[in-house]
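As the next step, I needed to go through one protein, both as residues and as discrete backbone shape codes, included below for the reader:
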Amino acid sequence: MAALSRVANDYVTRVLGAPGEVTASEWDALLPAGASPFVRHAYLAAMHGSGSATPRTGWTPRFLTLWRGGELHAACPLYVKAHSYGEYVFDWAWANAYEQHGLAYYPKGLVAVPFTPVPGPRLLARDAKARRSLVDALLAYCRKEELSSLHLLFTEDEDVAACEDAGLMLRHNVQFHWTHAGWSDFDAFLASLAQDKRKKIRQERRKVAEAGVTFRWSRGADIARADWDFFYRCYERTYLEHGNPPYLTRDFFARMAADMPECWLMFIAERRGRPIASSLIAVADNVAYGRYWGALERVDCLHFEACYYQPLQWCIEHGFTRFEGGAQGEHKMARALMPVRTTSAHWLAHPAFADAVERFLEREGQGIENYLEHLAERSPFRQGDSFPPR
């Protein structure tokens, strides 16, 4: 554990070298109601204990915590990063500009959940005062360690307010989420779509069915060890086909099965009695999160069935209110996942580069607004229907 220091409001700052240096009960007590499972202590600990997010892979943990009277008042997963992989908010151009001017962009400070582009709380705190003090402590740490910058990714509104108050710059992007509008079944959902979108989805599902592919699902403790093993073969194959090793180790998923089983839903695609593909969905508080997928055989439209249609059908049948489709992917709109703005916050130590990035973000932000307006004109729902349809 790093040396202690004090910040405003008489908090004691402790910088932790691993999630295990704070108890799960202390950490999780800071989570707001309805928080995604990805900021839980068990999830972050599994990232590190499994060897997935470690200094060796470029993720050096420096979890920042604020204490008063021996009680934890605020905390965040802070990493010192030697690269920008696994973040999904791209700053490669900023790093290149630094390099062209003979400056070092890395190491940088990052507040995020490794390899997990899911919006949610990043500054865990008992109240707004503690949250704002946590931002001050982050900036003080970055200055002390002479880091080039600080980045908070996929933040919630409370985080944004604290960051804005501290003078950080905001950056916006777009994801695509599906919202349950009270449909009784998948056919009722399809009936709400424009005719061309409805026809396309039916065609894609028919191709998979005619290829002899069927699906089964299991959740939580009902997911068999053999299914976890098969899923990892599929997940690993997806990365290897693109020439990269997988971000997450098999041990990470073993820890998920042991420590957070209730948060996982798995779909297995089978043909002629053999599993050929799998998708893994996170679930919590009536929200589903599309996370990982892979296939050992190629079947036309299998990806859409495994990653969208099966999960959406499951969400409708089980009363889940939202399905978040993950990073990027304008094609998701054709499956009724609608655009949602996401926000990150940034601080750069170099004044000239900070000014240049601020101007860039103003232009980029206007582009995002134009993009959202453009997407709004391309609703997949029937003409005249509101969204969500009533």
Q: What stands out?
A: The first strand starts at residue 5 and ends at 7.
